[in-house]
Write the structure tokens for this entry.
Amino acid sequence: MTDEAHDRPQGITRWLFSTNHKDIGTLYLIFALTMFFIGGLFAMVIRMELFQPGLQFVDPLMYNQMLTLHALVMIFGAVMPAFVGMANWLIPMMIGAPDMALPRLNNWSFWLLPFAFTLLLSTLFMQGGAPAGGWTMYPPLVFQMGMAFPFVVFAIHLMGISSVMGAINVITTVFNMRAPGMTFGKLPLFVWTWIITAFLLIAAMPVLAGAMTMLLTDKYFGTSFFNAAGGGDPVMFQHVFWFFGHPEVYIMILPAFGIVSQIVPTFARKPLFGYRSMIYAVVSIALLSFIVWAHHMFTVGMPLAGELFFMYSTMLIAVPTGVKVFNWVATMWRGAMTFETPMLWALCFIILFTIGGFSGLMLGLVPVDFQYQDTYFVVAHFHYVLVTGAVFAIIGGIYYWLPKWTGHMYDEGLGKAHFWLSIISVNILFFPQHFLGLAGMPRRIADYAVQFTEWNMISSIGGFVFGASQLLFLYIVIRTIRGGTKASDQVWEGAQGLEWTLSSPPPHHSFTVAPEVH
Amino acid sequence: MPTRRIMNISHAVVALMFAAACHPVAADYSLNLTQGVTSISQRAYQLHMIALWICVAIGIVVFGAIFWSVARHRKSRGVTPAQFHENTRLEVIWSVIPLLILVALAVPATQALIALEDTSDADLTIKITGQQWRWRYDYVDDGVGFFSNLDGKSAAAGRIGSGIDPQSVDHYLLNVDTPLVVPVGKKVRFLLTATDVIHSWWVPDLGFKKDAIPGFINEIWARVETPGIYRGQCTELCGVGHGFMPIVLEVKTEAEYRAWLAGMRAAQTAEKTEAPREWSRDELMAKGQQVYSTTCTSCHQPNGEGVPGVFKPLKGSPVATGPVDVHIDRVMNGKSGTAMQAFAKQLNDAELAAVITFERNSWGNTAGDAVQPAQIKAARK
């Protein structure tokens, strides 16, 4: 190997041509944060319009574009890239490797994303506007999209390619680059959850690509996959979509489980209670995710046997999920806990994710799902698992590893202020949506009957405060990158794992000499 | 003096708080699912409450343990952390107990589901057709069928800058021009389908929603035991009018239902016999405006300008100002590949003639002609 391979390119080429796992991780995280604010902006438009009955700011067409883009941007632009960014930063450091196994593929995986999202967001300015049929893109409604249609399909293909390549990189890295002695039985939980996530990505994303391609050929090449008049079936799209969609849900939560499983033992100063059972639970959840998809579409009219099968399999997920929660609680039990910012986020993750799990269990019961389906009860449920679940874990993880990444401690006071503002506002935002759904408010409507006014106003106020609070997060992160108290290598008293043996910030090639793991 | 001032201020504060609590008058902080008016909705409600209380109980145990731990097992209390981990027996216990709870929950859920899916021995069958953005109800055994549109007052108040306070509209967005009527105590079987995109038919008090899917027919049933008016909405995103296709169900006694059915049948016959006569232009314009506002405005907008890039304008359009035959053909047969539907089967001869006349002579369109129902009748062949 020549010396050039170890050069540190400066300026824009450092980022454009980067093959360094930490630089690419940073790119992913900056991209995810940008998308989090763009998607958040769309959410603010939604909450403004829903502040009171009647239409005030946007017409229903614009409203539908906002809700569709909000979902696509948050799922594919914010949550998934944030996890990939953290995997890039952490996996080589956690397994004792110098970098990811496939650095050039890594560069390409990232640089597809800005193009994919430029394409997606440019549809806002096209004739006919952005996609407005929901992120689920059910036919035949999706065919009423204007000229944005092929752009959206292409953008989603790009995102899928990016995700699959990222997943291949994670698997290759973990299988081949572990330091001597770092057996699978010693891998940190974050790495374990990410391997399983990577397998889910490889299995699920091509299914989405297939569904999107079938939509494309239905629209432009005269096929009738989803058109009953041509012998097809619009419900088949929903089956194919959710066969991707349910594993996708776990793609967005398993790495969060991993992050929380790193944070809790550190601040409880006590080993994770059930390392092995945590891994078994994650594997069970991943396997179950492929046989529960139709619970997203109980109202399409399935045979009784089908409804029963999907109800039972869905209920089963509660068992391994319960195991995870019980293990976190047992880890905290009789520990010696301190409550720095990352721990606060992890604690609230456990409580609020469990609340999302409760509503998930209720939604799995078909006879009541016929009442809950497509109401704000569902909106409340998936925001509890995605915002106070996935997003809270990501934010907690950022606070946890930011001193390691930047070499500076963040401002603890500001971090706690950010936490308390977020935790209070997010519950004001989403908890009343349970009541709205139970009272009969359908989701995805731009305007509503007057009896839903009060809870919507409260929810909107929570939304505005929650949105504004995240600007504080941006400020904290920028301030920490630019300077601050020097962080020690260990950073946290109770932290365990190879990443804490490196300097803060870590050297350019994390481990140039493989560490010995005992 | 100061005491009195403080008294005054405190009075004002109390009054303000009272006013805040009372305003708006219709304040509704409804929290829970409706019990509804069918056996199905009551079973759904019971299942909902059982599941809710189970979740609350588990929540108390789990969150209680977390809060206890947070309060007691903290470093600031000087505790030394225990180092225990891994306990297979405990892992098995906290897997098996939830499993048993789930089985207990699955039993009533399965029973309710089996009852819900049993559509046999119905007294009456109604076909429900969803389309952008109205419902059509056909009483298949009685030859009566009609469309049910959002009522005009809600439609007018709902637009941006309408200047009408939705609070002032009776049942804003939950009212229709012609409600669905069913007899009390009879098992009614609903057959659901759609003509364009997927819709979903939901009246919370009946205890279910079911998708209306183009090209397929879904079945569901209800037996309502209490006369009354029950309201619901479309619950599957179906385009710009998704929030604007409500459902109103009137449950009447058998006698009232029979009378209503006879009235509907008579009205439909009258419409058929009246249509073939020669209509004056003013009559056509008046009826046309009414048909336009219920059928066409969600896409083409009240001002006929449409939505650029999505819904074509009618104002100054080549079709609405060109040869009348082309215009008639477009309205009756739609345009494939676009959202423009075929209205031949949705509207009768007089309605089609009127709405086409209205479109050709409004918003500055000056075709000047009037289309007669007879022309439409001829075009149907």
